[in-house]
Amino acid sequence: MPAGTLYRGREGMWSWVAHRVTGVLIFFFLFAHVLDTALVRVSPEAYDSVIATYKVWLVNLMEYGLVAAILFHALNGLRVVAVDFWAKGPKYQKQMLWTVVGIWVVLMGGAFYPVLQHTLRTWFGG
Amino acid sequence: MQIHQYDTVIVGAGGAGMRAAIESTQRSRTAVLTKLYPTRSHTGAAQGGMCAALANVEEDNWEWHTFDTVKGGDYLVDQDAAEIMCKEAIDAVLDLEKMGLPFSRTDQGRIDQRRFGGHSRNHGEAPVRRSCYAADRTGHMILQTLFQNCVKHGVEFFNEFYVLDLLINEGKTAGVVAYELATGEIHVFQAKAVVFASGGTGKMFKVTSNAHTLTGDGQAVALRRGLPLEDMEFFQFHPTGIWRMGILLTEGARGEGGILRNKDGERFMERYAPVMKDLASRDVCSRAIYSEIRAGRGCGPDGDHVYLDLTHLPPEQLDAKLPDITEFARTYLGIEPYTDPIPIQPTAHYAMGGIPTNVEGEVLSNNTDVVPGLYAAGEVACVSVHGANRLGTNSLLDINVFGRRAGIAAAAYADNHDFVELPENPGALVEALVEGLRESTGTESVAQIRKELQESMDTNVSVYRTGKTLQQAVEDVTALKERFKNVAIQDKGSRYNTDLLEAIELGNLLDLAEVLVVSALAREESRGGHYREDFPTRDDVKFMQHTMAYREVAEDGSTSIRLDYKPVVQTRYQPMERKY
Amino acid sequence: MSIETKDLVVPSLQAHTGQGLGTGNPAEAFVVEPARARTKKTPRRTRTNFEMLAWLFMRLSGVVLVVLVLGHLLINLMLDGGVSKISFAFVAGRWASPFWQMWDLLMLWLAMLHGSNGMRTVINDYAEKDATRLWLKGLLGVATVFTVVLGTLVIFTFDPNI
Amino acid sequence: MSTPTVEKHSAALDAVEAGSTKLINVTFRIRRFNPEEHPDPVWVDYQLEMDPKERVLDALNKIKWEQDGTLTYRRSCAHGICGSDAMRINGRNRLACKTLIKDVNPEKPITVEAIKGLAVLKDLIVDMDPFFQAYKDVMPFLITSGNEPTRERLQSQADRERFDDTTKCILCAACTSSCPVFWNDGQYFGPAAIVNAHRFIFDSRDEGAEQRLEVLNDREGVWRCRTTFNCSEACPRGIEVTKAIQEVKRALVTRRF
Ligand SMILES: Cc1cc2nc3c(=O)[nH]c(=O)nc-3n(C[C@H](O)[C@H](O)[C@H](O)COP(=O)(O)OP(=O)(O)OC[C@H]3O[C@@H](n4cnc5c(N)ncnc54)[C@H](O)[C@@H]3O)c2cc1C
Ligand code: HEM
Ligand code: SF4
Ligand code: F3S
Ligand code: FES
């Protein structure tokens, strides 16, 4: 069957898609994260060796992505709560979304060095 | 072919059909056959309101309302019927309110009322606020409310079933035959009582406020089965349709203070109707508009329209009272009604005539006899409460009052009578019609014939008519009917074959157009919506009577229209000259 | 979904003859049908407030999580040299304090419940067959309970001197 | 009173009256489906000359009347009040009769396809029964108790205003079939049903709000909405659908309405 065209939803739909994708992503990360943290019950060495992988640049970069996901999910989550409980929420949903995106960009900029400092330092020294 | 049995079958689920269904479902086993989903019916397009002398905002009574109705109809109204309608109007409105209709309210929380064309206090002294409304969505609210109540009462709908034939056996109603759009199957509905409520015929005109689906199926079916059609020459042209498109801008716009202006900005209605001005009845306003255009005072480069001016009204008032029509202007014309006047022209709007009935909704087979078990209500019917010109708001009233009456009467009839045996081979006529079109190898196109019909009707049978134009129309319609025999369709399938149905609908329009022009040609006078330039005055001596048109089939199979006349019922009001 | 859209674009006036496929009335056999259409029998009233409570929980937990999760991220990933500082010793130091124990415990519970309820919604949306849905939700439930129990045990039975 | 006031002609009005008849070439790419012929839907291109100020419905009519009579769609009023012709035009749900060609970028082929989430029966016609079933399931009629008053029930203008927005619904299904939740789960009540429940829940005359809220408290009820706002964007009547849904949600939480 030839596919229909993609529905051209607007801000509301795409922000929901992003919220869902980030939510699922975080969920799987959390699952893994609890498992790796559980290694502290096994032995300090086991834990530290797993944590060492977190310090590999690629994983470090993915951490930045995780922060991005969590930040977006959290901020947009607050927007959703506002849409639900504030009578004018639905009316200003778009403005709120752009505010969320704005804050997100600023915070991600701010988090760039702190999160990636490990990698940056191993690469460029410092 | 499937055969169904119901006590009562209602054809059409517009305002009249659903009002009838609510009553008859509670009293008898009822099926509603409708070619559209009920909420798609054109009742939903009605905007302005529904009149009833509630006297919620100022003094009023139903007797004044009756007078306005009779006068509005240029005395061709059956006054007993008008009296019933105006008296029952009050309960009709209150009933709707109790069913949940969200009327606009007064400060005291009562149903608000506003002015409307032709409605006056104390027999024409001044405009009165009589129209009950819900912003400019009154018809929408009525349709929704009635549908909601049909859901509540569990009315059985057969959606997208086109009724194409009426079964009469030995003079009594036996049922109807319908075509199911989804499958192409033919269904016979055997019924004790049948109510026709299938709406108007506006699509025979080009510029019209009517929906694509208003093709007069009910009238055409009745005509084909030998029943008369009453007063078909009276077709109302609403003064304010959007220029060239015909989309209606409610008279409520003028009720709220809107003004008609010509190219000089003059409020020309002052000259034609010194008292009621812009709120004169519709035929008067439409003629005035064309007079202005003919006198070279029309607007625009071609001088072929005038303006409806709302710019002096506060935007808040427009938003609250006329939100939809202002949006129409924005969407379809791209102009802002707060600041720009709206180009308008008269638009074909309402068929005063139709299947003749008495006040119980029983269909007449001639001037006096009824067809047992057959009823009609709404725009398809002619009771006649509208006479030669319907007053604004009186149609929504008509469908509620007479829809209800027909529903009750039909159920009562079904209760007291048995099924009439179906005629032999009941689906034959419809089968032949459908198969004939499907198998036709003709060369004519439905769209082309329809276009030519609409153009001829617009030029020849519009607000101004003369013997010559009508003669031309007769010739055109006859020629088109001949060509229609040679029509072919492209879609030969059975599922959702709208190509086929459009052809059948065109056939109906052609039949009705013929009745309309023949009736109009014979009426050598001017009355209400029928204005003959060659006979510019009303002739009460010769024509104070209803036209009854019959279709006669000659032995060689050719058909013609035979005209007869029926006296008007007059009770209180003697004909007077009509001034606004 | 596999056919290229382009290939099927046919010029007008061609394709539709209305003659059918010549197999009687094939119409019933093919319709573009969505999964799970509503029917007359659809409304199965649940008569509990479960969905509402779940909905409220999502919002409440979300708001609390903002503080917990963002705080957690701030401390673990950003302050004091970011991820490089994390080690067994760092964890041991944190969990020495009941405050951080409670913090992480609450975060674990809320995030897991929030997350798995969110996943439940996602499954409800995309799993079309009842059986699939049941399986996926079962799996989700097991994973959630396992994770929450494991995490809780770890936090409470943590022994810095292992 | 009869002083001229219509001197002030805006450019917009002048443009309308000049009646530009410059026709442009447009391609309509329509997703056709006729199971009597072929089990799969196909995209078909139609070339035609149109005035850009005409409606998409006019174009469909032109195609049907002049090129291909088998093209099938529903329509009636042609001015956006009957709700027959919701379809997906350039990827978004709209009424064909309320969409002017110039507003959907006629430079490129304009795609037209049936609305999503309801069974397609032929071309642009979908099965509306599940949609109306959801509508019926919210008990969309006034529920009252006690004796009927002789006159009308009183209702203040403010109380009337409370549910004005949701009385405008024409049951066109543009909202419900734009909802991502509904695409995947056709048992979800969908925005249109909730809008019509809202219309009664917040009607001061109605006494059935509790029952209706209970219906919408269902698994497939109002909690299914993920506030994606597609419904609000799609509604041709400009109803703030998502807002209405939120009001119903809040009414369920607080039991105040
Ligand atoms: C734009 C506009 C505005 C108006 N405004 C007002 C106003 O403000 N006040 C007022 O009083 N009046 C107004 N009117 C007039 C009034 O709305 C109509 O006359 C009235 O609604 C007609 O109702 P009805 O039930 O007879 O027909 P409709 O509502 O037209 O319904 C016809 C029904 O018949 C069915 N049907 C038709 N043919 C068949 C068939 N062959 N088989 C099965 N079913 C069939 C259709 O499916 C439909 O359900 C207005 C009219 C228009 C066009
Ligand atoms: C940081 C603060 C967080 C906030 C403010 C927040 C907020 C929300 C809200 C309000 C919803 C409901 C959305 C809706 O009903 O449409 C939601 C959904 C969801 N959340 Fe969170 N959340 C947060 C953290 C998390 C975490 C840590 C996880 C992972 C474990 C998570 C996973 C999910 C998932 C999977 C969904 C379902 C998405 C969907 O249904 O589309 N969230 N979140
Ligand atoms: S809410 Fe709007 S989009 Fe939805 S059915 Fe009603 S009118 Fe159509
Ligand atoms: S599109 Fe659907 S998810 Fe909610 S806001 Fe509208 S119902
Ligand atoms: S045709 Fe009536 S809404 Fe478009």
Automatic annotation (TrEMBL), chain D:
<dbReference type="Pfam" id="PF13085">
    <property type="entry name" value="Fer2_3"/>
</dbReference>
<dbReference type="InterPro" id="IPR025192">
    <property type="entry name" value="Succ_DH/fum_Rdtase_N"/>
</dbReference>
<dbReference type="InterPro" id="IPR001041">
    <property type="entry name" value="2Fe-2S_ferredoxin-type"/>
</dbReference>
<dbReference type="InterPro" id="IPR050573">
    <property type="entry name" value="SDH/FRD_Iron-Sulfur"/>
</dbReference>
<keyword id="KW-0001">2Fe-2S</keyword>
<dbReference type="GO" id="GO:0006099">
    <property type="term" value="P:tricarboxylic acid cycle"/>
</dbReference>
<keyword id="KW-0411">Iron-sulfur</keyword>
<dbReference type="GO" id="GO:0051537">
    <property type="term" value="F:2 iron, 2 sulfur cluster binding"/>
</dbReference>
<dbReference type="InterPro" id="IPR017896">
    <property type="entry name" value="4Fe4S_Fe-S-bd"/>
</dbReference>
<keyword id="KW-0004">4Fe-4S</keyword>
<dbReference type="InterPro" id="IPR012675">
    <property type="entry name" value="Beta-grasp_dom_sf"/>
</dbReference>
<dbReference type="Pfam" id="PF13237">
    <property type="entry name" value="Fer4_10"/>
</dbReference>
<dbReference type="GO" id="GO:0051539">
    <property type="term" value="F:4 iron, 4 sulfur cluster binding"/>
</dbReference>
<feature type="domain" description="4Fe-4S ferredoxin-type">
    <location>
        <begin position="159"/>
        <end position="181"/>
    </location>
</feature>
<comment type="pathway">
    <text>Carbohydrate metabolism; tricarboxylic acid cycle.</text>
</comment>
<keyword id="KW-0003">3Fe-4S</keyword>
<protein>
    <recommendedName>
        <fullName>Succinate dehydrogenase iron-sulfur subunit</fullName>
        <ecNumber>1.3.5.1</ecNumber>
    </recommendedName>
</protein>
<keyword id="KW-0816">Tricarboxylic acid cycle</keyword>
<feature type="domain" description="2Fe-2S ferredoxin-type">
    <location>
        <begin position="24"/>
        <end position="118"/>
    </location>
</feature>
<dbReference type="GO" id="GO:0009055">
    <property type="term" value="F:electron transfer activity"/>
</dbReference>
<dbReference type="InterPro" id="IPR009051">
    <property type="entry name" value="Helical_ferredxn"/>
</dbReference>
<dbReference type="GO" id="GO:0051538">
    <property type="term" value="F:3 iron, 4 sulfur cluster binding"/>
</dbReference>
<dbReference type="GO" id="GO:0022904">
    <property type="term" value="P:respiratory electron transport chain"/>
</dbReference>
<dbReference type="InterPro" id="IPR004489">
    <property type="entry name" value="Succ_DH/fum_Rdtase_Fe-S"/>
</dbReference>
<dbReference type="GO" id="GO:0008177">
    <property type="term" value="F:succinate dehydrogenase (quinone) activity"/>
</dbReference>
<dbReference type="InterPro" id="IPR017900">
    <property type="entry name" value="4Fe4S_Fe_S_CS"/>
</dbReference>
<dbReference type="GO" id="GO:0046872">
    <property type="term" value="F:metal ion binding"/>
</dbReference>
<comment type="similarity">
    <text>Belongs to the succinate dehydrogenase/fumarate reductase iron-sulfur protein family.</text>
</comment>
<keyword id="KW-0408">Iron</keyword>
<dbReference type="InterPro" id="IPR036010">
    <property type="entry name" value="2Fe-2S_ferredoxin-like_sf"/>
</dbReference>
<keyword id="KW-0560">Oxidoreductase</keyword>
<keyword id="KW-0479">Metal-binding</keyword>
